[in-house]
Amino acid sequence: MIKVLFFASYREKLGVDSLELDQMPANLSALRELLSAKGADWQEVVNDARTLVALNQSMTRKDFELSDGDEVAFFPPVTGG
Amino acid sequence: MISIQQEDFDPGYEQDQLSQSTGTGAVVTFSGLVRDENLGDDVGGLYLEHYPGMTEKALQEIIEEAAERWPLQAIKVIHRVGQLHPGDRIVFVGVASAHRKAAFEICEFVMDYLKTRAPFWKKETTPEGDRWVDARESDDVAAKRWNQE
After folding, report:
1. C-beta of residue A66 within 8 angstroms of C-beta of residue A24
2. Would A10 be classed as within a structural domain?
3. Which entry of A54, A56, A77, B86 is 20 to 30 Å from A7 by CA?
4. Which of B131, B132, B138, B141 to mutate to test the interface with A (most CBs of A within 10 A)?
5. Under an 8 A CB cutoff, do A9 and B91 touch?
């Protein structure tokens, strides 16, 4: 099982802050495909060039393999400070 | 060292806490405030969302990177979350070092990296309605310059 989180404008757009997937995609690309199939908004959020991705609470710009228990987050560029 | 909190903070108290060591020659602090204007619109309030867990981890990594680059003696980073209003304090970075140059640089470095790497998002209330604040390219440019020095 993996956990997928969405924040800020993405959370509002999808109406979802987190979901758990029993069906395990092999890697980030496969996860993107799986989520994109849920609709146009999902496709936009996970494939937007500005979308940031964190694996287990660390931002990464590369594709990665997924393991049981992983936490993946999708969010827009950060605006703190 | 790091605090994510809804409540306000006292910059004077934090500055005193950073000034405890007699080996410290410089304390630099930065306080960020909520403005009442953004992109030409009146801002009545600001809501701060974050990613609990990752926020602390990201700030910790920024501090560790600063400690590798400069002789850092003590540091405090406070970021508020939740509902804020114009004039409210939103962020604090306080740095203690032996000399002023390092203290100034660390403070600026931590703020530049916080703005581009720490998972916080602002939603502002304007007369036109609520809107998520867009990231600024100038913040990216500010953070990138530390890689060139």
Report:
1. yes
2. yes
3. B86
4. B132
5. no
